[in-house]
UniProtKB/TrEMBL annotation:
One Pfam assignment: Cutinase
UniProtKB keywords: Disulfide bond, Hydrolase, Signal
Protein source organism: Stachybotrys elegans
GO molecular function, one term: carboxylic ester hydrolase activity
Signal peptide range: 1-19
Domain of life: Eukaryota
UniProt-listed PANTHER family: CUTINASE 4, CUTINASE RV1984C-RELATED-RELATED
Gene3D superfamilies: alpha/beta hydrolase
Key word Hydrolase present: yes
Name of the protein in question: Cutinase
Length: 248
């Protein structure tokens, strides 16, 4: 069966002029968390299941640094956000019928959020430097704002999933998990940006559990919640991805 599905994926792929493979299945773009080695990391079981359930589905992980230092977190996030925007824009242009899903874990969730919602105040060096104790000074110039992907490019983005998002917005309709709806991530987006996230409505889900201080600011930090999202919500995310794929 697995062999058959892989063969099918090869046959279904249509190479575009830019060398982009359009797939009949779901194209998943993933951004891993801080210090995870290149690859699909903690989200691997989800992508494997989707590749089985939706024949022809393929996964691209964004090859960004995912570092805390060297380069500094926000430089790494900017790199990933830019690479992801390029990947989605190129895929949308080459494959007008190609359905996409974007998933990000921890720092990767911020990367995905920046790419689709844009980013505002958190880029200002004066604001961000005190947020990471021990961070070396940022020498690379960072833009003060980062514009979101235009809607003509994201029409076929059928799902957006965040796990342990540092930019989690309090009270957002897409929040899931046991964290208090009133709590926010340490780098939550400002109100001028949130309208761009709102365009995604039910396509978007952000998982955050009680005690994960990355997305659930103000709580006592425990390590388990931040690394357990796929274990706890993987099946429900797979269901969401399949339903979104089928209904678009
Ligand atoms: C992004 O980071 C990768 C390494 O992770 C590097 O090869 C690439 O040059 C960086 N790109 C930009 C635009 O900074
Ligand atoms: C989206 O619109 C921009 C600006 O009008 C254009 O350059 C780009 O090719 C469009 N992309 C797609 C996928 O339609």
């Amino acid at each position: 069966m697995r062999f058959f599905v892989e063969r099918l994926a090869l046959v279904a792929g249509i190479a575009s002029a830019q060398g982009i493979q359009c797939t009949d299945g779901l194209k998943m773009f993933l951004a891993r968390g801080t210090t995870e080695p290149l690859g699909t990391g903690l989200m691997t079981t989800i992508t494997r299941q989707i590749e089985q359930l939706i024949p022809g589905s393929t996964t691209d992980d964004i090859p960004y640094p995912a570092t805390l230092f060297e380069p500094t977190y926000f430089v790494s996030v900017l790199n990933g956000s830019t690479l992801l925007q390029e990947a989605v824009s190129e895929y949308a242009a080459a494959c007008p019928d190609g359905k996409m899903a974007l998933m990000g874990y921890s720092q990767g969730a911020q990367v995905v959020g920046n790419a689709i919602c844009g980013a505002g105040y958190a880029w200002s060096a004066g604001t961000i430097l005190p947020l990471i104790p021990g961070a070396p000074p940022i020498t690379e110039p960072l833009p003060l704002t980062f514009p979101p992907l235009p809607t003509n490019v994201t029409e076929n983005v059928v799902a957006v999933i965040f796990f342990g998002d540092p930019t989690r917005q309090p009270g957002a309709s897409w929040n899931r998990g046991s964290a208090s709806p009133k709590n926010r991530g340490g780098f939550n987006r400002d109100d001028s940006i949130i309208q761009y996230c709102e365009r995604y409505g039910p396509r978007m889900r952000s998982y955050c559990d009680d005690g994960d201080s990355v997305c659930d600011d103000g709580t006592v930090s425990r390590p388990e919640p931040h690394i357990s999202y796929v274990q706890n919500y993987g099946d429900e995310v797979v269901e969401h991805l399949v339903a979104q794929y089928n209904s678009h």
